[in-house]
Amino acid sequence: MYPIHASEALAQGITRLVVEAPLVARRREAGQFVIVRTAEDGERIPLTIVDASEAAGTITLIVQAVGKSTREIASLRAGQALLDVVGPLGNPTPLRRGGRVACVAGGVGVAELLPIARALHREGNALDAMLGARTRALVILEDEMRALSSTLTLTTDDGTYGRAGRVADPLRERLERGERWDAVYAVGPLPMMKAVAELTRPYGVHTVVSVNALMVDGTGMCGGCRLTVGGTMRFACVDGPEFDGHAVDFDELIRRNGTYRAQERAADEAGACARQGARA
């Protein structure tokens, strides 16, 4: 069991957990993740290691409640525990050193981007951050990203905070004005990362994307997280999670990620019925 030291709601449906996992805390690097379970029959959920304290033996995870299993994880409170925490998994993020980089995050992708931004900052890079959310209430980790960045631009789909529009909009405008970066790091929904990669492609700006594909074991054995990169099959869990955004076949990946949508919806509806029954 992995005790939860703290649980904090960052926004509606988004929870930050501090979990006791000393071996993971000791070895993790930026970009790596863990796979967690709440129960023996529970789904295995990959979550980025947002932060860690080797002294305290804890790691920080951020989970967005979008389905049955993530709702269960997000509902946990201090004093409770996760059954399994396996990791650190995946490869550390390849880091640019001493350059100028753009860090672009959509939605809860900022939770995955934050440890990468911290590592880039430690390597002497100048950061321009661009963060997007659907609405003001879903903006998270703004202060943490601002502290690392030379500039920070916020967008919301509905215009309730920052500027109205999509997070790729300011990147496009700045590229069109002649601004250039040594690299762009993008994390978020697959369509958003595809849009960023297509924006930077004609300018030849190296673009790193973090792929959150369907995943079961996290060791390359199940094959669930396979994707095509540069015409070759790769596995997000052992070859990634970061890849060259200009080489990823996003259209194929988007189709694959929707494979179990009906089953996910059914499980979520069954969980909702069970919660309502428990309250009755």
Describe the structure.
The model has no long low-confidence stretch (mean pLDDT 90). The protein contains nine helices and 17 strands. It folds into two domains: 2-89, Elongation Factor Tu (Ef-tu), domain 3; 100-209, Rossmann fold. Helix 3 (109-122) links the parallel strand 9 (100-106) and strand 10. The radius of gyration is 18 Å and the shape is globular. It has a seven-stranded mixed beta sheet with strand order 12-11-10-9-13-14-17, with helices on both faces. A five-stranded antiparallel beta sheet has the order 5-6-2-1-7. Helix 5 runs parallel beside helix 6 (190-200). The protein has 280 residues and is an alpha/beta fold.
Provide the fold topology.
Blueprint: E1 2-11, E2 14-20, H1 22-27, E3 33-37, E4 45-48, E5 51-53, E6 58-64, H2 68-74, E7 81-82, E8 84-89, E9 100-106, H3 109-122, E10 126-133, H4 142-148, E11 151-156, E12 163-164, H5 168-176, E13 183-187, H6 190-200, E14 207-210, E15 226-229, E16 232-235, H7 236-239, E17 242-244, H8 250-257, H9 261-279
Helix pairs in contact: 5-6
